[in-house]
Amino acid sequence: MKPIKQRLLDGEEVRVALAGALASPKLVEMFGMFGNFHAVWIDQEHCDISQQQIELLMLACRASGIEGFVRVPPLDYCTIMRPMEAGACGVMVAQIRDASQVRQIVAWAKYPPEGVRGSFRANAEARYGVTEVAEHMASANRDRWLAIQIETPESVACLNDIATIEGVDTLFVGPGDLAATLGVAGQPMHPKCTDALQRVAEAAQSAGKSWGVLPLSLEHADFCRSLGCQMFSLASDAESLRVGLAGAQEKYAAYFD
Q1: Is 48 exposed, middle or buried (0-12, 13-18, 19+ CB in 10 A)?
Q2: Residue 209 falls within a domain, yes or no?
Q3: What residue ranges of the chain have pLDDT lower than 50?
Q4: CATH number, domain at 47?
Q5: Structure pTM?
Q6: Range of the domain at 74
Q7: In 10 A of CB 2, how many CB atoms?
């Protein structure tokens, strides 16, 4: 399994799926078994998903041959660090406002000398203590992936500062919140939003970083791809169920009269 961090560094596109409201190990297994995704991301920002659940979901990812990462709110040290101890390939941090906030997040995510993360090896990331401590710290600092969400006017205003911070790997656009905070809720292709997307693309390219998006339509996805976007979140648990139910009703329309 090629890590998504390496895929992005190699200039490849990455397909991911969202598991939040209906997150379960079996759902992750299905995404991995026949969804043709490179990774599943677990939404801990909007959903009440515990550390114990994350550990089980990461077990399912490993068993299914895909990676998993966790979207977290920018709350504290433990919020950033614990998903990686559970075996997540990294974290995506939501609701970013400025570069100083990002520098703090990088420090929480990295071991010394790059950050302040504390050592604990009784977990999947450190192979439950099998990996020697110095090797574990070095590989975690090298291999863990950190994405910063761009979904506010404040983050758009300091894009270049955020993109150039060492330790930030990817910028990820949250188009729903971005449109809302720009005053054009529900209009991800509004000129205000497309201008912001172009600025994200330029900042990422200038800093040699990748960027991603949760596209809200095929048109939206195609536009982002034309700007060099590499990561696309193309399915979610709730939407997949909704579409599946709609398909069942269409297939058996005569039985739903």
Answers
A1: exposed
A2: no
A3: none
A4: 3.20.20.60
A5: 0.95
A6: 4-147+218-255
A7: 11
